[in-house]
Amino acid sequence: MALPVSIRASVTPLELELIASETLVDIVPLISMEKTAFISGAYGPLRPPVKSRIPLWMATNLKLKKKCHIVPPDWLNIEFLQERLTHETSYPAFSDLPFRFAEIAKVILDVASDDLQNPDKIRSLLKDLREARQAKSREGLQKLDHSELSLPNLCSMEINEIRPFFIQAMSVLTKLVREPTAGP
After folding, report:
1. Which of 30, 35, 61, 142 could form a disulfide with 44 if both were Cys (CB 3.0 to 4.6 A apart)?
2. For residue 99, what is the DSSP state?
3. Who's near 89: CB < 8 A, 6+ residues apart?
4. Count of CB atoms within 10 A of residue 167's CB?
5. In-domain check, residue 60
6. Which stretches make up the GINS subunit domain (predicted)?
7. How far apart are CA 128 and CA 156, in angstroms?
């Protein structure tokens, strides 16, 4: 959702991708590597062709060096995304998606699209899903009520996009409710 620069004071999409890079993903290593300790934890050992679970940042690094194949998460496939898109366009509630699905999908599509079946269709479905969810967000913001708020199943990217607008809107609504109405 494109917001005016004046109220765009949130975490950037690149920063959200960095946060999401701590998510564990499965890989099929193409090299052997002993258990290695990092600040975030110890990962390995890696032994081809046995799947290993490592952080997305490490999988990305290995993939760029052609030392592994990234196994896409269960939800990053055409059938699942098509089902979620149908739900988004048929029901008023947001469909249940992984909290950081947008960031993880972008990183995997950027780095390991060759490890996905039909990455162009997946990109298209993710774009359609994002647009459908943005339309729901805009509609929900029009019906904003300061006394109650429920945003189940919004992902981190969506929350981050509406946060600046929401903070300003809630501030204005709170001031309006607190101020007594001036009568004649």
Report:
1. 35
2. T
3. 132
4. 13
5. yes
6. 75-174
7. 18
Q: How many domains does the chain have?
A: 1
Residue 175 lies in a domain: no
Q: How many residues does the chain have?
A: 184
Given this model, what pLDDT does residue 180 score? 61
Domain holding 24, by residue range, is: 10-92+99-141+152-164
CA 63 to chain centre: 21
Which position has the higher pLDDT, 111 or 146?
Answer: 111
pLDDT score, position 149: 59
Q: What is the pLDDT of residues 74-97, one digit of tens each?
A: 999 999 999 999 999 999 889 999
Give the CATH number of the domain where residue 130 resides: 3.40.5.50
Task: Using alpha carbons, select from 75, 36, 66 the residue that is nearest to residue 54.
Answer: 36
pTM of the model: 0.80
Reported as a single tens digit per residue, the pLDDT across 153-162 is 888 888 887 7
